[in-house]
């Protein structure tokens, strides 16, 4: 930005970031670390706390970053981002204790890690002494649930601003900011709701309640033609983020402690694929369906969420 280079130079930075794992590699390491240091009973809530931090960071970034950018441009906020990343790297390297003993014979460039992921999903891992085929089936099914849920979340998130800008809503920047804050606030309300529901419900039922909250909210969005209805939809989605920590926790509990890294690395890959698929499907579907139903994309998203709801419900009943 100082050199005022063409925008294409940003692609070089994004390419280097992508080759090094980008944001999802950091998340994979964080979730694997939480799984390593937590017991099975508290794991779901601890994973939910980590996801709630994402929402809290989103709220702070939208409040601080937006005002700062308007006042001083893009350069100074990017310096803050760089300083925050450096501080996080120093904290992780100097303060955070290792959860797994380092292997002196381990190599940086090896296919052993890729083989570990393949073995995990082809054999079902080594964390359960029961039927390996049943464990493998649950790994694939929960991964499918995670894929559908995150695809819906990432795909629909990109459409909210377009939906709110277009008639009959015609929101301005202030209302769009409030809507974004309400969406990020759901991370915190989902954490609180998950903690309360865990007192009387199993994790599977918590996930089903979360999916029901998301489905109802999406149905309201699909017919929303006023500001009141849009914020009603945001309010009904107050538990929509509780399902992803439950799925991460369920996947984590299926494998051995030594396989947590392989599991969350594969989950991070699935999450990256979700962003790509969600963006492609929803951004293509939205303009194609405007002529007969403006909110059809949200209706489609609600229907898709019936798939993980059915799988989790059946799995809970079968267990």
TrEMBL record:
The keyword Transmembrane helix applies. It is found in: Apical cell membrane; Basolateral cell membrane; Cytoplasm; Endosome membrane. It catalyses: pemetrexed(in) + H(+)(in) = pemetrexed(out) + H(+)(out); (6S)-5-methyl-5,6,7,8-tetrahydrofolate(in) + H(+)(in) = (6S)-5-methyl-5,6,7,8-tetrahydrofolate(out) + H(+)(out); folate(in) + H(+)(in) = folate(out) + H(+)(out); methotrexate(in) + H(+)(in) = methotrexate(out) + H(+)(out). One of its GO terms (cellular component) is apical plasma membrane. Its main location: membrane. The chain crosses the membrane at residues 12-35, 47-68, 74-96, 139-155, 175-194, 206-224, 230-251, 263-285, 291-314. Gene3D superfamilies: MFS general substrate transporter like domains. InterPro entries: MFS, MFS_trans_sf. The keyword Cytoplasm applies. GO terms for molecular function: folic acid binding; symporter activity. It comes from the Eukaryota. It is a multi-pass membrane protein. This is Proton-coupled folate transporter.
């Amino acid at each position: 930005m100082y050199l005022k280079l063409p925008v294409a130079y940003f692609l070089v930075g994004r390419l280097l970031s992508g080759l090094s794992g980008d944001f999802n590699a950091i998340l994979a390491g964080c979730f694997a670390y939480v799984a390593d240091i937590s017991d099975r009973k508290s794991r779901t809530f601890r994973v939910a706390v980590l996801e709630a931090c994402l929402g809290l960071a989103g709220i702070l970034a939208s409040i601080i970053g937006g005002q700062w950018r308007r006042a001083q441009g893009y350069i100074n906020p990017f310096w803050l981002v760089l300083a925050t990343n450096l501080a996080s790297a120093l904290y992780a390297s100097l303060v955070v204790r290792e959860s797994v003993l380092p292997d002196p014979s381990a190599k940086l460039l090896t296919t052993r890690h890729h083989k570990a992921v393949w073995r995990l999903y082809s054999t079902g891992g080594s964390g359960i002494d029961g039927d390996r085929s049943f464990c493998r089936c649950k790994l694939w099914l929960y991964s499918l649930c995670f894929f559908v849920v995150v695809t819906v979340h990432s795909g629909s998130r990109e459409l909210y601003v377009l939906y709110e800008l277009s008639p009959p809503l015609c929101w301005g920047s202030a209302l769009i900011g409030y809507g974004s804050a309400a969406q990020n606030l759901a991370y915190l309300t989902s954490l609180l709701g998950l903690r309360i529901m865990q007192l009387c419900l199993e994790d599977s039922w918590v996930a089903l309640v979360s999916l029901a909250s998301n489905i109802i909210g999406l149905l309201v969005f699909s017919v929303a033609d006023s500001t009141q209805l849009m914020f009603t939809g945001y309010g009904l989605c107050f538990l929509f983020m509780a399902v992803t920590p439950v799925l991460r926790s369920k996947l984590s509990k299926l494998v051995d402690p030594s396989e947590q890294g392989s599991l969350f690395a594969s989950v991070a890959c699935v999450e990256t694929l979700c962003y790509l698929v969600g963006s492609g499907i929803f951004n293509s579907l939205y303009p194609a369906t405007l002529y007969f139903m403006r909110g059809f994309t949200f209706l489609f998203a609600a229907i898709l969420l019936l798939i993980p709801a059915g799988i989790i419900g059946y799995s809970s009943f079968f267990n």
